[in-house]
Amino acid sequence: MISEVQEISECVEEKAENIYHTIEVDSRPLEKRFYKIPETIYRNDPDWIPFVREDIAAIFDPRKNPYFKHGNAARWILTTPSGKEAGRIAAFINFNKMYDGNKKVGGIGFFECINDKNAAFTLFNIAVKWLKVHYFVEAVDGPINFGENDKFWGLLIKGFTPASYGMNYNPPYYQELFEAYGFNILYRQITNSLDFSRPLPQRFVRIAQRVASNDHYSFKPFRYRAREQFVADFVEIYNKAWVSFKDFHSMDADVVRKSISEMKPIMEEDFIWFAYAGKSPTGLLVALPDVNEVIKYSGPAFNWWGKLKFLFYKKIKGFSCARVIVMGIVPEFQHHGLESALIYHAFNEGKKRPQYKHVQLAWVGDFNDKMIAIHKAMGAVEDKQHATFRKMV
Description:
- The structure is a single chain.
- By secondary structure, the protein is of the alpha+beta class.
- It has twelve helices and 14 strands.
- The protein has helices at residues 2-12, 28-41, 53-59, 117-135, 173-181, 202-212, 227-241, 253-263, 292-298, 304-317, 338-351, 369-378; strands at 21-24, 71-79, 85-94, 99-100, 103-113, 139-142, 155-158, 184-195, 217-221, 272-277, 280-289, 321-329, 358-365, 381-392.
- Strands 1, 2, 3, 4, 5, 6, 7, 8, 9, 10, 11, 12, 13 and 14 form a 14-stranded mixed sheet that branches.
- The longest helix has 19 residues, at 117-135.
- It starts with a helix and ends with a strand.
């Protein structure tokens, strides 16, 4: 067995000067170092907004992340010989989603690194080795999240401006490091933006109003007091709407409950809409205020002091941007205009709140022609591009 492990390790490791050290994160002090490493990378970057540390901690806590029920994760810190932090990385395996056809696929994420190829390769090597030795993967995707793809997913490759909440931000040189190691773009993730000061196109409005007034359909905003019914409706819609996508796996109601609980402090209930045909849930749209507009002032810690600062700056600064994080229609009702009606309802609620200036439309894969066409019909313009990369190992 030892010789097999050595053989695998030699297959995945590439030549690099042995000047960096990797430390696996297995204690609270090392966790704290892991969270603070981005501060080293971005200390001179005015566009960087840190992730909330508690959000990242929850991803690697088996008590809080339901993905540990069917997967595993590991983290490492990269240091120089003198002990100075130079980068970090995490690796994941999701047993429910680890096959792409007949290939077993693992993932890496939360990659941060100084602009040095040897440093980056050392991080990639340790993560790929862990996936290869323990789970015999044949491919590695990254940067991804050990969770749903609505957060911390993809490498920024276009639009290097401040990120919305949960969206990855990185220097342009990260793409060079990924590609030098042998990663290639698997798909692009497009984020579009819509200006609240500009009216929706008239053709779009006519379709939306016609559908909204159709007695066969009804549209309801989310209400937290009735959240269990909305959780059930969300799961039903999601599991029908995305079933045709490659490597689809059904949504877990526990994941939805956890997300709703996390969103509660900042959600605008009237920004979340559901569509029904009779009593059957048929479509959904979920939009949230972009809390990064406040986090850039309050900071990444959400302990009691951090929460007080967040509430203070929330009151002082407020929100000017909303973000649509998910929208979907069950297949038999697609192309019926329900998408337009959902957007119409949420857009009108946004316009009632003059502090909101624009809305970001969550990333759409370049493979999703239907949603890209809807964004164009709304008059949205491209704001950013992320990419998910894959390396065969």
